[in-house]
Amino acid sequence: MQPLRWKWLKTLLMILGAGVVIVGLFFVAANLWVLTRTQGRIEHRVAQCTKQPVGIVFGTSHWTRAGGRNPYFEARMRGAADLISQRQVSHLLLSGDNRTQFYNEPITMWRDLRGRDVAEADMTLDYAGFSTFDTLARAREVFGVERAMLVTQPWHLPRALYIADALGLDATGCAVSPDHASESWRLEAREWIARVSMLGDIYLWGRQPYFLGPREPLRIVPPDQLLPPAVPADRGESTSD
């Protein structure tokens, strides 16, 4: 009887081991599929990012759990301000979580960008960007965005671009990296899991955005029709007649 039990145990362990290997291979393959489908549309320098009418900036917390300024938030705001000043985009859609009155990512982004001299008219706030999927679905269905530049960290962009493709949004990625980020490996590891989950959202259970609401199309002036920034007068010369 004892040898029979051992035989069944060995068989069970072999089946479990094979299952782990299959799941692992699927996990890696799914991530490689997403990466290979999107990497060609990601630029890592703002000046090289393909011009688009709209820059979609994904919300994140202003502060870290330790109480310091979030370097990922800082990188996104710095990149968004540079894109506007360099005429890489003509409008910014600031999309983030505002699920409670005590946490408002879009307003925080708006205030930060106003402090960087981004004009109020160049920004629209989306208060229902509860996730990457919701942000992109609302950009397409609520704000009428058809072409956009996605502004976020390089490890986030492949998933965001893949979702954009699935939703019919013509998008490119502009990667913004923080100067210092001690825990980036944790976020990158979590992103590998999020990519697999995202494929399930798209192909298996047909995920829908949490909230859409009425259509509010953006009024966008194409970047190639924007006037060049005015050259300030030389302070060393008199401008009087």
Automatic annotation (TrEMBL):
<comment type="function">
    <text>Participates in the barrier function of the cell envelope.</text>
</comment>
<dbReference type="GO" id="GO:0005886">
    <property type="term" value="C:plasma membrane"/>
</dbReference>
<dbReference type="Pfam" id="PF02698">
    <property type="entry name" value="DUF218"/>
</dbReference>
<dbReference type="InterPro" id="IPR051599">
    <property type="entry name" value="Cell_Envelope_Assoc"/>
</dbReference>
<keyword id="KW-0472">Membrane</keyword>
<keyword id="KW-0997">Cell inner membrane</keyword>
<dbReference type="InterPro" id="IPR003848">
    <property type="entry name" value="DUF218"/>
</dbReference>
<protein>
    <submittedName>
        <fullName>SanA protein</fullName>
    </submittedName>
</protein>
<keyword id="KW-1003">Cell membrane</keyword>
<keyword id="KW-1133">Transmembrane helix</keyword>
<feature type="transmembrane region" description="Helical">
    <location>
        <begin position="12"/>
        <end position="35"/>
    </location>
</feature>
<feature type="domain" description="DUF218">
    <location>
        <begin position="56"/>
        <end position="193"/>
    </location>
</feature>
<keyword id="KW-0812">Transmembrane</keyword>
